[in-house]
Amino acid sequence: MVNTTNARPGFKQKVGRETKEFVTIYLYLVLLIGAFNIYRWLLMAEYHVGYFVYGYTLVEALILAKVIIVGEGLGIGERFADKPLIFPTLYKTMLFALCVLILGVLERLITGFFHRDVMGVFEAVIRGRYEILGRVLIMFIAFIPFFAFRETMRVLREVKLFELFFRSRGGVSSPSS
């Protein structure tokens, strides 16, 4: 008879940890993409151009969070795991900024197919190139501290990093004292 009681808590813990990680990434991306879209909305409103994509913000954050979780699960950036943290941080930042570029182009292609003919789809991508590149630039810059934090967490372990940010350090003296 196989004892499944030992396997179940490990599985539940893994699912719980991965769910917590996904939700954390998703919330970060919703705030980031949402702030970017609010900025675009305010900018467009100044020129009396309608712009409203809040639902898209939630979907884009969901897709990108899933891409990050799956990418890290597949070991993206692991070849730099033993290097100084700047290497895996910048490598992951570049790879996932590339994912943002691909998602931006796919978004233009998909929405273009609903509103235009085939040639109009490619025209929409070309016309939207500056918006797509702007989004990639913003996400690249925002991903640097995001992946730096995640890489630091990987090295220090989650509990230690959590304690450094959210627990009193009481008797620990600062280097300047």
Question: What is the H/E order?
Answer: HHHHHH
Count of extended strands: 0
Shape field: elongated
Estimate what percentage of residues fall within beta strands: under 5%
Which structural category do the helix and sheet elements fall into? mainly alpha
Q: How far is the N terminus from the C terminus?
A: 61 Å
Rg estimate, integer Å: 21 Å
Give a short account of the largest sheet.
Answer: none
Q: How confident overall, as mean pLDDT?
A: 81
Helix content: over 70%
- What is the helix tally? 6
Low-confidence stretches: 1-5
In summary, what is this structure?
The chain is an all-alpha fold and 177 residues long. It has six helices and no strands.
Task: Describe what this molecule looks like in 3D.
With 177 residues, this protein is mostly helical. Helices cover 77% and strands 0% of the residues. The chain has helices at residues 7-46, 54-73, 86-115, 118-127, 129-156, 158-166.
List the SSEs and their pairings.
Layout: H1 7-46, H2 54-73, H3 86-115, H4 118-127, H5 129-156, H6 158-166
Helix pairs in contact: 1-2, 2-3, 3-4, 3-5, 5-6
Keywords for this entry:
177 residues; mainly alpha; 6 helices; 0% strand; disordered N terminus
